[in-house]
Amino acid sequence: MDRVKKAFTNRWLILLTVSVLFWTKTIFAYYVDFSLGVQGSVQYFILWINPIATTLLIFGLFLYVKKIKPALIFLFLLDLLNTVILYLNVIFYREFTDFVTIKSVLGFSKVSQGISGSSFALMKVHDVLYWIDLLVFLGILIYIFAKRKEIVSKPVKKTFAIAISCLSALIFSVNLSMSEANRPQLLQRTFDRSYIVKYLGLDAFTIYDGIKTEQTNSVRAHASSNGLTDILKYTKQHYAAPDPSKYGIAKGKNIIVIHLESFQQFLINMKVDGQEVTPFLNSIGNDNKQTLAFDNFFHEVGQGKTSDAENMLETGTFGLPQGSLFTQLGNDNTFQGAPAILNQQAGYSSAVFHGNVGSFWNRDHVYKNLGYQNFFDRSYFNASDESLGYGILDKDMLKETVGHLEHLQQPFYSKFLTVTNHTPYLTDDKNFNFPSLKTGDSTVDDYVRTAHYLDESLRQFFDYLKASGVYQNSIFMIYGDHFGISDSNNKDLATALGKDPTTWSKFDDAQMQRVPLMFHIPGYTGGGIQHQYGGEIDVLPTLLHLVGVDSQKYIQFGTDLFSPKHDQTVAFRNGDFVSPNYTELGGQTYDNKTGQVVDPKALGIAPTIDAEQKQVKQALSLSDKLNQENLLRFYTPAGFTPVDPKKYDYHDLDQKNAAIEKQKGAQSTSIYSKNGNKTTAALYPPIQ
Ligand code: GP9
Ligand code: MN
């Protein structure tokens, strides 16, 4: 009996027991209730150790309390609090496939929506396991207090308590460095909330989220509409009126945006062993009647990669200097983005199709703030589809979109985010039947194979669009989001491009940031290759003008690529820039013709270069101010209604769209309704 008593009063044993139990519950939640996409033994190892540091740190605080009874109550409360956080996330995850953020608790009623009304429905029998240890703990406490017994328990020395806190910090740093090694820039880029949980654990995520929220809030608390003065001055002055011969040439047409993942311009018209890598895209790009294709168009993304590209194209503002705007500010920023503008000014419905989970890059929240009516994420595609890292294969994704697409009211603004052409360019011989390059660098070598695959998937998609008649009523905007081969691999690529790797320079790296941009308008005859310089920031005003929507009243940092007043200085996110004659990198000026460093003073171009540099920096910093301080909440252009994200819910979208068709009856303009209320899915060619 004495031994049992001793065991119950031994603080080390108490700490160990409570911690092990909590660790077990967390691991249980990881496996049973969350799906964290863990891959490979390193990630599994990190997953298993990640609750240790924070659990020890938090529960270890109990060692600092000298008297045993208050210490036990304190530990119980810590355990309770931690379990509440864990369980809240479990319930929330069942509804939203996402984790609880501070904002979702304090801000709008997402948690209550998910947790109050339907909370009973969301509970499962095994949930008992999350509470059982606490119940036993509570029982013991009640017993001790009811008996009013004095318990003798030697407090641990303060140095030991401190040692435990330090040990937890040490474990945390090991955990963090392993995670960073496995997923570089994890904390700067915050790809997905589930990544932070997978690598660092739920408590670390909650604390991280709290710090981030506090940082943004304090920036915003000091912001006021005065901050808009300089921004409006800049965008008004920088605005470029459209070329009347291009304005409205695609008015009223469906807009089909095709996001070519990691796709660079050099792939266009490239051949490997005599075969074109992308014959289909080449046929579109080289169609000098129906296509306006650019050959000096650059991506301008920063760490937010795809999400930065999306942000620029949807909002006409830049991504952030660090991290992703979508993940950092996208939860509650006010946007005046493409889906809302097109809906309000031209009656467009809107949808995004993407074969990855909805939480990646925080899309499930951002799209609502942008005013997207539909977001068909991974959950809308066949569960059995083969997945390669970032989502299901493009051919499956595009084919399966039809069942959803055909229920959208026309005209629609639709975006197809492809994903198979994503580093590390995983291939097999079944799906990727194309010769690889022979540089010896596997990333570079297989890039052409996945690019070829992407090209084939688009050909099949277009076959469907042509057969169903959608093609003729649409404008296609096709673009590459960012580089696929990073600067560190460019030298290996050089030989394949007929360039000399020994003289490869920073200038060459910068030139490689060209990505395709094509506007394909069936029936149009004024096309041809466009040589003007431009970047992703310029796309939104260009697209709006092509479909006959005025962009002047919106705060956008780019200019219409077809405007005679278009600004051809292309800003990179780090403040460098490319312009038609010169490229400025890290304070050095390169001549575009020779690729050599030149002295601007000697050439008499210093004032021009300085002015351009100043303007690039100004545009980037004004855009950052606008977004970081969330200044669009103070600015509503005439005739624009602010987006209410609460109006959007991405569950049961097909049923909702079918209900709209039904309600509109003969007025319904969906592909399905126009096809005599029959599906057009059979028009899709079989996947080859
Ligand atoms: C994932 C995809 C990839 O959903 O969009 O994003 P990236 O890694 O290219 O930024
Ligand atoms: Mn991308």
Notable characteristics:
688 residues, alpha/beta, Alkaline Phosphatase, subunit A, 2 domains, 48% helix, binds (2R)-2,3-dihydroxypropyl phosphate, binds manganese (II) ion
> Would you state the CATH class of the largest domain?
Alpha Beta
Distance N to C terminus: 74 Å
- CATH superfamily membership of the largest domain: Alkaline Phosphatase, subunit A
Q: Any idea of the CATH topology of the largest domain?
A: Alkaline Phosphatase, subunit A
Strand content: 5-15%
Average pLDDT metric: 94
Ions, cofactors and other bound molecules: (2R)-2,3-dihydroxypropyl phosphate, manganese (II) ion
Rg, alpha carbons:
28 Å
Please indicate the count of domains.
2
Helix count from the secondary structure assignment: 27
Number of strands: 17
Can you give the helix content as a percent range? 40-55%
Short description:
The protein folds into two domains: 2-220, no CATH class; 233-377 and 406-485 and 502-541 and 548-635, Alkaline Phosphatase, subunit A. It is 48% helix and 9% strand.
